[in-house]
Design a protein that fits this description.
Layout (H helix, E strand, L loop, with lengths): L1 H5 L3 E3 H10 L28 H18 L12 E6 L5 H13 L1 H5 L1 E6 L3 H10 L7 E3 L2 H6 L2 E8 L8 E5 L4 E11 L3 E11 L2 H9 L14 E4 L3 H11 E10 L1 E2 L1 H4 L10 E4 L2 E3 L10 E3 L2 E2 H10 L3 E7 H7 L2 H7 L8 H15 L8 E7 L19
Parallel strand pairs: 2-3, 2-5, 3-4, 5-10, 11-15
Antiparallel strand pairs: 1-7, 6-7, 6-9, 7-8, 10-17, 12-13, 12-14, 16-17
Helix pairs in contact: 3-4, 9-11
The structure holds S-adenosylmethionine.
Length: 390
């Protein structure tokens, strides 16, 4: 509240979202307050167990192998390749992938380092503790630091782009306006935060609306209709491109096509708050203690990727990707497990089903991009060959 007052009483929603997530002293991620996992604030695919990483690992190994060519001299060689994870959360996916690579592809693992890109000190501290067990050497670096000596490797962005600050925009019946978070002082009830329409949109944002089909406004969107734009995507993708000399980028996140994202009936956008396994549509409650997240718009992601030098390799829903990578076989394999481990087997079965459930994590999108090299289409989005038909 003091910071809002010092900023003149109101700030764009994106500034508020940046503060409440990333402020080092008060932010939900900045302080490391948020805990990821079924017993924490919210669960993510890797926090459900190691099966997600085990299914993903062969795809990453394919890519690393393509990059290695003849440059990977086997055990003891200086690490010429990098597995870069941005937004590693608790560090569990990075650890599980490092372990899977070391177990399944030891020669490749011997010439691969793990690079973690995490701007929040509170989160990085827990990642450092967990990754002491990593069989791959680890280091933490920002995109700017990597840009000084770009790496060749695979860049992974699992549930991180949904944490980039979004701009909320609201239709007032005549104009699109940037939504602001404003401080209200009521002598009786005390100060409170409110969402209010602010200034009309800048021409650049209005051009984005036109590209997304939101101009001219439709009568189906009444005054008060509100949604999000993603000004953080382009700088993030440009930063990622500068950090990676050559290799693929795999984005795994909540994403919707523009026609679903901006459908008239989605009148309050996709922004949600999460804490203690609860979901709320109120982004203003107890700032700095809830995760705030917004879906990605697929077209906006792809446009920003193309204009920052990334080439699209393929994109599919998570359910399809994981089935192509062997989830059904893994599920079937659980039947061979010992009855003594029944509890653990049932938990793994439930986790695997959650990963492909179209009403849960199965609706996530896997978007594979690449730069600096010709890469084969990923295993998870290849068209079935003639032998697979019929
Ligand atoms: C929802 S968590 C995802 C954690 C992990 N990838 C997982 O799936 O369990 C988001 C993570 O991204 C980090 N983060 C937020 N903004 C980021 C940015 N601009 N660059 C890199 N990491 C970021 C957060 O601190 C946190 O570690």
């Amino acid at each position: 509240m003091q910071r809002l007052e010092a900023s003149g009483g109101s700030v764009p929603f994106s500034t508020y979202m940046e503060w409440v997530l990333h402020d080092p002293h008060h932010g939900a991620y900045g302080t490391g307050r948020l805990r990821i996992g079924p017993a924490g604030d919210f669960a993510t695919a890797p926090s459900l167990g190691p099966d997600f990483a085990a299914l993903l690992a062969p795809q990453l190994a394919d890519w690393l192998q393509e990059l290695a060519g003849s440059s990977c001299g086997g055990l003891g060689a200086e690490a010429p390749l990098a597995l870069v994870e941005t937004g590693p959360g608790e560090g569990s996916l990075a650890l599980q992938l490092a372990q899977a690579l070391a177990a399944g592809w030891p020669d490749l693992a011997a010439c691969t380092e793990l690079v973690l890109v995490e701007p929040n000190a509170g989160m990085a501290e827990r990642q450092r503790a967990l990754l002491q067990a990593s069989p791959l050497p680890c280091r933490w670096a920002s995109f700017a630091e990597l840009a000084a000596a770009p790496v060749r490797g695979v860049l992974l962005a699992h549930e991180v782009l949904d944490a980039l600050a979004v701009e909320r925009i609201v239709w007032d019946g005549a104009l699109w306006r940037q939504q602001v978070v404003a401080l209200h002082k009521d002598p009786a009830a005390g100060p409170s935060l409110r969402l209010e329409p602010g200034e009309p949109l800048e021409p650049a944002a209005a051009a984005q609306l036109a590209a997304l089909g939101l101009l001219p406004p439709s009568p189906q969107r009444p005054p008060g209709w509100c949604t999000e734009l993603h000004p953080g995507l382009l700088p993030w993708l440009a930063g990622a491109a500068a950090a990676l000399k050559a290799g693929p980028l795999l984005v795994i996140d909540y994403a919707l096509e523009a026609w679903r994202y901006y459908a008239p009936q989605r009148s309050a956008g996709t922004l949600m708050a999460y804490r203690g396994q609860l979901a709320s549509s109120d982004p203003l409650q107890e700032p700095g203690t809830w995760d705030l997240t917004a879906h990605l718009c697929l077209e906006s992601l792809l446009a920003a990727a193309t204009s920052s030098g990334w080439q699209l390799l393929g994109q599919v829903r998570q359910g399809e990707a994981l089935l192509a990578l062997g989830l059904a076989e893994r599920l079937h394999g659980l039947q061979q497990g010992s009855a003594a481990d029944l509890g653990a087997l049932l938990a793994r079965r439930e986790a695997l089903l959650r990963l492909v459930d179209p009403h849960a994590l199965g609706d996530f999108r896997w978007v594979a991009l690449a730069r600096g090299m010709a890469v084969e289409a990923p295993r998870f989005s290849r068209e079935p060959g003639p032998s697979a038909i019929g």
